[in-house]
Amino acid sequence: MNTTIGQIAAMCGGQLNGDPSVLCHGVVIDSRQLHDNCLFIPIIGERVDGHDLVGQVLANGAAAALWQADHGTPPTGNTIVVENTLEALQQLASAYLDSTEARVIGITGSNGKTTTKDMIYALMTEAYRVHKTEGNFNSHIGLPLTILAMPGDTQILILEMGMRARGEIELLSHIARPDTAVITNIGESHLEQLGSREEIARAKLEIVNGLKSSGLLVYHGDEPLLKQVLAEPQYVSQEMRKVTFGMEHNNDLYATGMMTQGQSTIFTTNALSEEAWNLPVLGAHNMVNAMAAILVANAYGLSEAQIRQGFAKLRLTGMRIEILQGRDGITLLNDAYNASPSSMKAAIDVLGSLKGYKRKIAVLGDMLELGTEELAYHEQIGEYVDGQADMLLTYGERGKAIASGAARHLPPEAIRSYTSKQELIDDLLQTVRSKDVILFKASRGMRLEEVIQALMPDSISNA
User: What is the value of pTM for the model shown?
Assistant: First the structure.
């Protein structure tokens, strides 16, 4: 965003104290990211109140700062007084977006949001100037910051939308007002907060509450809960176009064949092309994500050649089936960014499909936020490992339940369970050998990437 503080005050409904002609470039909420002529927005956190830093950032080069009215008199400098700085951030983002010609693609789902965002970005950049959510900036703070970081000439804005409770996706959807909404799937993440997968489906479908009139909904047609909720009166009466993707043949786009070739997934579909698609990442779940991206690209007029070129340039955000060459000739599959039962099974499927390795080893850790049935979900994952891995190592208290489930099929000597990360690392360093492939998968809080780092070549001197 590059505009005057007078315009900013009007956009967020604030009272300006200062020169309205002063130009602001960019928005920050973290004083460590301060740059000259930016707008500083103080956020009130659990431990830090950004208002305590306003005087300092104005003295250090910020063009202006917002100020929440209940915090008393603002410090000397250009300030814009608002009722609530967080709401003003969101209002400012929405108003800035309205001032551009960017079309918005919003993406949500229990799993695959970031991967699908990366895929759509790779395809759309073949034809448009595109801006997207970076990292996990998909919250009530991150999404507006992503919008405000968008260049003014952006044609396509791709926004990832995350949530932990009902109402959060609806808020994000109303801020962004997407032209296209994508729902990747409905999994088990956030069962602890929402109580049922049906409620998760309702929470994800909040993305259409801000969808523009006659907007497009692209959703996973294999998920019966999405069909069930979409049949509820508020969605039946809403004017929107719908297209589906998945494995079942009643979808608008479905897979008709799939094979793994090296580090790529080759697949064919029922429509859009008779030739096979080449996806430079592994896994049937990524093929399904790719079909969502193909549908979006097709809706925005991309040619088949442009879609193929986009896939060839695809780069995924880290720790999502990231293939790494470890020490002593071992191969590491880093899928340690997050985990739920459905994404855990998808990763195990990838491990099971690999060929040309001496041993397949699964290192699986706790899945968090699964509610009262969490141990049952972990046991089911243990059983699912049967036939897909030669050895299973688990990490964490809940990981013991994974080991328990696996014990129904795997021999005792093939299963090891740890609550100490260092002991897990020590075991792997002694156990793995050349031409082994090891999958790492767990919830973000388990930080399995620390184990992966110990198996990388550059860790030898530190081991």
Answer: 0.88
Residue 146 covered by a domain: yes
Q: What is the pLDDT of residues 393-431, one digit of tens each?
A: 999 999 999 999 999 999 999 999 999 999 999 999 999
Give the closest residue to 417 by CA, choosing from 403, 437, 428, 429.
403
Claim to verify: residue 176 and residue 298 sit in the same structural domain: yes
φ and ψ of 23, to 5 deg:
-90, 135
Angle at which helix 5-12 crosses helix 85-98, to 10 degrees, equals 110
Q: Are residue 292 and residue 171 in the same domain, yes or no?
A: yes
Neighbours of 52 (CB within 10 A): 11
Domain endpoint, select from 260, 293, 312: 312
For residue 167, count other CB atoms closer than 10 A to its CB: 11
What CATH number does residue 52 fall under? 3.40.1390.10
Residues 151 and 112 in one domain: yes
Cβ neighbours of residue 461 closer than 8 Å, sequence gap 6 or more: none
From the list 316, 120, 98, the residue with the least C-alpha distance to 218 is 120
How many domains does one find in the chain?
3
Residue numbers in the chain where pLDDT is lower than 70 = 459-463
Is the CB of residue 220 less than 8 Å from the CB of residue 245? yes
